[in-house]
């Protein structure tokens, strides 16, 4: 199934098509799957699919088209009135902007590798939480600043 619902789904499919250089095949655009060709398919260096997410790495879309799409979404964020719409637009913006990193963890033994992998996952979760929730200076600086006010 395609991600999202309604108009948001259409926009996300358009994002994917621009990122990969493909075309959205839909009945409302008068396109038929049986009449589509290989030129309608996009390309990517790598696609990772899991139960919960699909990650497209190295999409083969036109760089100028991707930049234009990013600018268009930024404009939509600026014009959006509801926090929910802004949040969803910012999610699309982050996905299209290429905020993906591939971390490779190696070790001499399997036990050591599992330990390193657990540490990397902890760091990743801490970083995600910091980005979503924000951070304050450490060492009690935040408490001192609050106490001064």
UniProtKB/TrEMBL annotation:
This protein's UniProt keywords: ATP-binding, Chaperone, Coiled coil, Cytoplasm, Isomerase, Nucleotide-binding
GO biological process: protein refolding
Top-level taxon of origin: Bacteria
GO MF, any single term: ATP binding
Coiled-coil region list: 63-90
Subunit field text: Forms a cylinder of 14 subunits composed of two heptameric rings stacked back-to-back. Interacts with the co-chaperonin GroES.
Function: Together with its co-chaperonin GroES, plays an essential role in assisting protein folding. The GroEL-GroES system forms a nano-cage that allows encapsulation of the non-native substrate proteins and provides a physical environment optimized to promote and accelerate protein folding.
Record family assignment: Belongs to the chaperonin (HSP60) family.
Name the record gives this protein: 60 kDa chaperonin
Lineage of origin: Bacteria, Pseudomonadati, Pseudomonadota, Gammaproteobacteria, Enterobacterales
């Amino acid at each position: 199934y395609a991600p999202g619902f309604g108009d948001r789904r259409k926009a996300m499919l358009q994002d994917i098509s621009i990122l990969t250089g493909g075309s959205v095949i839909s009945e409302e655009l008068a396109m038929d799957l049986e009449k589509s060709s290989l030129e309608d398919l996009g390309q990517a260096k790598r696609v990772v699919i899991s139960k919960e997410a699909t990650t497209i790495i190295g999409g083969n879309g036109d760089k100028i088209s991707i930049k234009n799409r990013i600018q268009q979404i930024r404009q939509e964020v600026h014009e959006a009135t509801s926090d929910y719409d802004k949040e969803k637009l910012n999610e699309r913006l982050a996905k299209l902007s290429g905020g993906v990193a591939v971390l490779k963890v190696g070790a001499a033994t399997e036990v050591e590798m599992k330990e390193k992998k657990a540490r990397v996952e902890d760091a990743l979760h801490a970083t995600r939480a910091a980005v979503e929730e924000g951070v304050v200076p450490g060492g009690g600086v935040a408490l001192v600043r609050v106490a001064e006010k």
